[in-house]
Structures are given as structure tokens and as C-alpha cells.
Design goal:
Number of domains: 1
Radius of gyration: 17 Å
CATH topology: Rossmann fold
Oligomer: single chain
Strand content: 15-25%
CATH superfamily: Vaccinia Virus protein VP39
Distance between the termini: 40 Å
Shape: globular
CATH class: Alpha Beta
């Protein structure tokens, strides 16, 4: 079911101010390579030298807001391709005056245009679309082509944290990370009943899956 477009989108986006750093827009692919580049200096964006962490596919922002609340000493960049969904998160950031979260409305594949040097110590992939058909494997956010992009964003020794309800995607991710030279740790086939549950932040999707008795799979992949 497609999400209905929110009313007065343009006007509401204008009121978000500097929380929303970039809207990629439908004409992005009509631009020249030079025009596509919009590199950010993250110390300037946040006004400090705090460490940076990135969530790709932040949805309405439940995870990233809880992270920001627990860790005010960290700067968070939240990425979401669907503007309807991202608007909700941005408006919450304004309402609650959350200063250590900034948003990018863009496709994850285009992140090298905005992150032009390694800066993140951690990337979060929470309940990404599994794309179960083999012909769609290239769209999975743990496909090697995406892992290569993350490697350009992550600092040496940086980590990618993944959670999913999809066992096939989880197994595919393990193979992808391993083939790209990443070291795997904290692997769990049932996160909520594991040692790692103590520090877990439950997302909207995760709560729904867990209530249905579905196991949550999780891992951490370390950049070589």
C-alpha cells in the first residue's frame, strides 16, 4: 500500500530549517556529475568535532531520536529516500529541539556525493527492505556495491550494525560482508533473547515483528 502524500509538503519542508540538509529531488539524475556533488564538512554542519554516526533508512526516526537522546555527545546523520516518511522525523526534530540529528532525503547509492571522506564511526541498517527475489539482489542495502559505499564513509575500524526480521537477507548479508573483507561479531539469531538485548533500541517495525513472535537477527560488521 502506497503512503498518501502529505498535504502542504513544500511549505512544511521549508519550516524544518537546517535539520534537513538536502532534498535530492526528481531531477537529480538529470544533473552533471559536477552538479551532483554536495560535500558536507560535518564539523561545520554540527558546529563541533563530536563523532559521527549514520542511519540509512531512518523511517520516522524512532531509532535515531532515542540514540540522540542517549548520546548527546554524538552527531547523527539520518538518511531516508521517502520524503513523506522523512518529513515526520524532521518535524519531530524541530518540535523536540533535537540538535544532534540532521537529515538527508536521498538514495543511499548517492551518499558518495555527500560524504566525500571517511567520517563515520558507525552505520546503522535497521530493517532494510529485503528484496527477496534474486533479480533484485542489487537493491539490497548489504549488496557489495553498497558495502563499498559504506567503506568510503566509515573510518578505519568503523562498524556497520544490522537488524532484520528476514533470515534470507541476514544470511545474504553475512556472505556479502565476509566477501568484502569485513570481520563479523555480535551475531545473534534471536536478538531479544540474547545478551545483546540490553542495549537494543526497539524500532517501530521491530516492535511489530517481535509481538508476532518473529525472531530478530542482528550482527556487527567491522571495516578492515
Amino acid at each position: 500500500m502506497r503512503m498518501r502524500r502529505k498535504r502542504h509538503m513544500s511549505e512544511r519542508l521549508e519550516k524544518i530549517g537546517d535539520r534537513l540538509l538536502l532534498v535530492e529531488g526528481a531531477n537529480f539524475y538529470d544533473r552533471s556529475e559536477e552538479e551532483k556533488f554536495h560535500p558536507f564538512c560535518w564539523a561545520e554542519v554540527f558546529g563541533n568535532e563530536n563523532p559521527v554516526e549514520v542511519e540509512i533508512g531512518c523511517g520516522k526516526g524512532q531509532f535515531i531520536f532515542e540514540k540522540a537522546k542517549r548520546h548527546p555527545e554524538v552527531n547523527f546523520v539520518a538518511v531516508e529516500v521517502i520524503s513523506n516518511v522523512l518529513l515526520t522525523a524532521c518535524e519531530r526534530a524541530v518540535k523536540e529541539d533535537v540538535k544532534n540529528v540532521k537529515f538527508l532525503n536521498c538514495n543511499a547509492y548517492n551518499l558518495p556525493y555527500y560524504f566525500t571522506y571517511p567520517v563515520a564511526r558507525k552505520i546503522y541498517l535497521n530493517f532494510s527492505t529485503p528484496y527477496p527475489q534474486k533479480s533484485y539482489a542489487g537493491k539490497r542495502l548489504t549488496n557489495p556495491k553498497y558495502i563499498k559505499i559504506y567503506s568510503g564513509i566509515l573510518l578505519d575500524g568503523g562498524e556497520i550494525s544490522q537488524k532484520t526480521d528476514s533470515r534470507p537477507l541476514f544470511e545474504y548479508s553475512i556472505e556479502s560482508f565476509s566477501s568484502c573483507g569485513y570481520r563479523l561479531k555480535n551475531i545473534s539469531l534471536d536478538l531479544h533473547n540474547s545478551f545483546f538485548a540490553a542495549d537494543n533500541i526497539v524500532t517501530e517495525y521491530e516492535k511489530n515483528f517481535a509481538e508476532k513472535g518473529m525472531p530478530i537477527y542482528s550482527l556487527t560488521a567491522v571495516k578492515p
